[in-house]
Write a structure and sequence with these properties.
single chain, alpha/beta, 2-enoyl-CoA Hydratase, Chain A, domain 1, Lyase 2-enoyl-coa Hydratase, Chain  A, domain 2, 2 domains, six-stranded mixed sheet, disordered N terminus, lipid metabolism, Enoyl-CoA hydratase, Enoyl-CoA_hyd/isom_CS, Enoyl-CoA_hydra_C, lyase
């Protein structure tokens, strides 16, 4: 197996990052990471690499306050590209597995609010993409699952870890051991998704959620995300220490001053933030 060569990133005149299979679309402060590999958005190595590039762009752009991940009207992502992996040897996969995890880690590392808008199938690697965002809104026709066990393997892009942290170890083991698909309502009941909407509305609902952070306290939002995510990986005592450090650091920001002065003068929820 030869190493995958990442294509050159393309920037359209409006500054949007465009790959062959993944692009970042920005509108009114919300960035949409659009997965676009018909018909099923199978996540091959090229797509994984382009996701890493687009995540870096979304993280760096001041005109992106929050991010929606979307696979289109028919399907979110049906999983990794099995044809690409089927003939890999153990040594091949030891090398490729880093990319397989890096692309979902890059989604989780965007230090802004993120949400998946899930239509159709979100299976295997597609489910792992959704698990890497902060929230998940599902269409009423969505099917989610980690069916890797049916191929004689296990989730390899973070699924065993993120799913267990989200829904608890027993429910995660049920889904991963059986490989079964679940519908949107069961996913909502176990906490795998946060809201269910008609398929034609789910993307707009996700964008609506994301838009509330446009013009918001960007630094504080990033601090809150880091405190929560880092705290999940350490003891309660250490997590509280992370929170303490993030909390104190915000008193060096313009937004903290603006927020507190506005609260004292005008009451809550009326501050104008600069994002500094």
């Amino acid at each position: 197996m030869t190493a995958y060569a990442r294509p050159r990133r393309q920037h359209r005149p409006e500054g949007l990052l465009v790959g062959e299979l993944v692009r970042l679309e920005v509108s009114d402060g919300v960035g949409t990471i659009r997965l676009d590999r018909p018909k099923m958005n199978a996540l091959n190595a090229q797509m994984q690499s382009e996701i890493i590039d687009v995540c870096a762009e979304a993280e760096s752009r001041d005109d992106v306050a929050a991010v929606v991940v979307y696979g289109g009207e028919r399907v979110f992502a049906a999983g990794a590209d099995i044809k690409e992996m089927a003939d890999m040897s153990h040594e091949d996969m030891k090398k490729h597995a880093h990319l397989l995890q890096d692309f979902t880690k890059s989604l989780g590392a965007i230090n802004k609010p993120t949400i998946s808008a899930i239509t159709g199938f979100a299976l295997g690697g597609g489910c792992e993409v959704a698990l890497s965002t902060d929230l998940r809104f599902a269409a009423d026709n969505a099917k989610l699952g980690q069916p890797e066990i049916l191929l004689g393997i296990i989730p390899g892009a973070g699924g065993t870890q993120r799913l267990a942290r989200l829904v608890g170890p027993a429910k995660a083991k049920d889904l991963i051991f059986t490989g079964r698909f679940i519908d949107a309502q069961e996913a909502l009941a176990i906490g795998l998704v946060d809201q269910v909407h008609p398929a034609e509305e789910v993307y707009d609902k996700a964008v609506e959620w994301a838009k509330q952070f446009v013009g918001g306290p960007k630094v504080a939002l990033g601090a809150a995300k880091r405190a929560i995510d880092q705290g999940l990986d350490v003891s309660l005592e250490d997590g509280i220490a992370v929170e303490r450090d993030e909390f104190a650091a915000l008193f060096a920001t313009d937004d903290q001053k603006a927020g507190m002065i506005s609260f004292m003068e005008n009451g809550p929820g009326k501050a104008t933030f600069s994002g500094r």
